[in-house]
Amino acid sequence: MSWEQLWLNYKAKENYGGRDFFKVITKKAGGVIIDCAADELVRAAQGFFGLTPSVEEHGADSGIILQITDNGKIAKAEGFRVYNKVGAVYVESPTDKGILYGVFALIRCVMLNVDLHYIDISESPDNPIRMINHWDDFNGNIERGYSGRSFFFKENDIIVNERTKDYARLMASIGINCSTVNNVNVKGVAAELVTEKHFDKLRQIAEIFAGYGIKMFLSLNWASPMKLGGLDTADPLDESVINWWKERVEAIYQNIPGFGGFLVKADSEGEPGPFTYGRDHAQGANMLANLVKPHGGIIIWRCFVYNCKQDWRDKVTDRAKAAYDNFSPLDGKFLDNVILQIKNGPMDFQVREPVTPLFGALKHTNQILEVQIAQEYTGHQKDVCYLVPSWKETLDFRTYMSQDHDTVGDIVSGKAFGGSNCGFAAVSNTGDEPNWTSNDLAAANLYGFGRLAWNTGLSSEEIAYEWTVLTLSNEPQVVKNVAYILLNSWPAYENYTSPLGIGWMINPGIHYGPNVDGYEYDVWGTYHRADHKGIGVDRSSKGTGYATQYNDPNRIMYETPDACPTELLLFFHRLSYDYVLKTGKTLIQHIYDSHFDGADAVEVMIKQWRECKEFLPLAVYERVMKKFDEQSLNSKNWRDTVNTYFYRKSMINDKHGRLIHT
Ligand code: GCW
Questions:
Q1: Which of 171, 256, 284, 331 meets the CB 3.0–4.6 Å disulfide criterion with 274?
Q2: pLDDT at 315 over 90
Q3: Angstrom distance (rounded) from CA 151 to CA 271
């Protein structure tokens, strides 16, 4: 199967003034990463200008020059400077990785029509760890994958081919430096990925990644000492268990040099973990951390731990409270090479959630923010939903754990507490479909995640602009309309799905399409508690107490409906249908209006896309149009299902007399 190059699609560039710089590329440094960087310039030169540069090692001072420098002007090891000096373009960094990032930045500048005669840019990444998590199963399936099958695994075997390299190029080009290739749910024979059987191919992947500055990580199954080692326990304090893991770790590092470490989902959604043996998560994580430490490895420990069997009559147990309850008492107990990976919200990647209060509760623990690029709850890459603005809201959220440098972005970038074992991770939306993300517009999220992880200061608009020009076209009509579509897509999706932060309301299991009571009569603790009187969950101090997990003044803001931000009102409060919102509308009228608005917004986006037709490759235009057709139906289905449900519950008419039915 062939595949596309997304934002690395180096199309011919007519009338570009910087062509001649690409005639000579001088590598004043050596190594595989520098070779990959030079290769990328060669590809770009061929694609843009149809010329094949001569690649030299001690050339004259002309063309493009790649050189290691430590003149103190570049803030961090992965940072770079790209500038023009007397007729040559220099790409400089203290490290080869920095040069690679500089080269990709230079190529991006060409695509954005920046004049290389005057270029002078210096950049350093905001987040030390910029990581992609693949939920790819060993059999080739992708959990929550909507873009085909895995390109890493097939029928319990590992795939290594040209696409592995193109994946690495794409990721490096947006600054990604870590990737976990297998699903955090390590099922069946996937546990064997830590055994000799698979080291050969894993090493090949790790080597390809290394050329692009990416460290490969694996997810592991906590019960492996039992499943694979024949032990009768997986207790992290048991000598035989420790020895079993020690042997695995030694073998892995011997066979896969530069291996990054492990990502661990334990005691979660039926997976085993330290709790099973009466141990806490620090004891579990530290056991592994001790073993990988001599090799420079890290353990990334997920905080998605909650009791997934909740009784609906129990109004105090609250799934939203779980991450904080489980992990805040452990602050300071984790070794330095353990990083807690924390989902953005307290529930599970809903279209709108508050930022988890666990950020702001840990002062002596390394942290990574986890978001989901895969659109599990946001339209399965059928519906367009550009998520960069929502990630920015999370990064900018003030936790008030100190007077300054207290945003989530400050915490995970290391600005708050220092250190470099921290960063930003996301669940990928890729698969083996030719365009990688099924909906072409969903690639803007993949691109956007990397760019934002590198530079949290970029705006959603800037990222949308860059992605559009690099991937689709710089035709003003396309730039304008695609920006409109992307920037309006998250609000639209939020409007036609579940109201005011309450979340869920999707079909259980598959998580697509409306089903208001789908999870209401389930045990997963994801209730909206709607009845004929009202809707919402009281999470104030008088309810589940979730709001008290926040530092003041956030706690105060969430405690009362008056102070609570409207978009999260039903997440924190149970209100009657005639409750009047800050907008002056009643709650029920807001539900009706937002659902009509959301579905209408989809039609506007479709119109905007149609206007781009003449400027786009027909295949891309039609692929996206097909997705829009599904989104159009989906949004109306949501609108009518949700509105009908609340009309029947409340028996209050729509003020505008619109037809409400399914
Ligand atoms: O959102 C839930 C998903 C599961 C996923 C889990 C997690 C990988 O529905 O499919 O499992 O989150 O984050 O571990």
A1: 284
A2: no
A3: 25
Q: Supply the residue whose CA is at minimum distance from atom 11 of ligand 1.
A: 185
pLDDT, tens only, 39-65 = 999 999 999 999 999 999 987 789 999
Give backbone dihedrals phi and psi of 370, rounded to 5 degrees, phi first: -110, 125
DSSP summary character for residue 320: G
Ligand 1 centroid to Cα of residue 371, in Å, is 12
| φ and ψ at residue 427, rounded to 5 degrees | -80, 125
Give the 3-state secondary structure of residue 126.
Answer: coil
φ and ψ of 62, to 5 deg: -145, 170
642: helix, coil or strand? Answer: helix
Q: For residue range 518-546, what is the model confidence (pLDDT) as tens digits?
A: 999 888 778 899 999 999 999 999 999 99
Which atom of ligand 1 approaches the CA of 268 most closely? 14
Q: Token pair of 518, please?
A: 């789908």
As a dihedral over the C-alpha atoms of residue 188, residue 189, residue 195, residue 198, rounded to 10 degrees, the angle is -140
Within a 13 Å sphere around the CA of 499, how many CA atoms are in the beta-carbon half?
32
Are 15 and 474 spatial neighbours (Cβ–Cβ below 8 Å)? Answer: no
pLDDT, position 316: 84
Please give the model's pTM, rounded to 2 decimal places: 0.98
CB–CB of 529/632 below 8 Å? Answer: no
Closest CA to 604 of 476, 465, 485: 485
Whether 213 contacts 33, CB under 8 Å: yes
Q: What DSSP string runs through 520-557?
A: TTSSSS------SSEE----STTTT-GGGGSPTTHHHH
pLDDT at 1: 66
CA distance 424 to 370: 6
Pocket of ligand 1 (CB under 6 A): 135, 143-144, 184-185, 265, 304, 348-349, 376
Higher local confidence (pLDDT), 308 or 14:
14
Q: Which residues pair with 136 in a beta bridge?
A: 142
Return d(Cα 259, Cα 246) in angstroms, integer: 15
Average pLDDT of every residue of the chain: 96
Q: How open is the CA angle 341-342-344, to the nearest 5 degrees?
A: 140
Strand partners, 123: 80
Return d(Cα 261, Cα 294) in angstroms, integer: 12
Angle CA(306)–CA(191)–CA(197) in degrees, nearest 5? 165
CA of 304 to the centre of ligand 1 (A): 9
List the beta bridge partners of residue 121: 82
* Contact partners, residue 85, CB within 8 Å, separation at least 6: none
The CA dihedral of 129, 132, 136, 142, to the nearest 10 degrees, is 150
User: Count of H helices and E strands in the chain?
Assistant: 17, 18
CA 274 to chain centre: 27
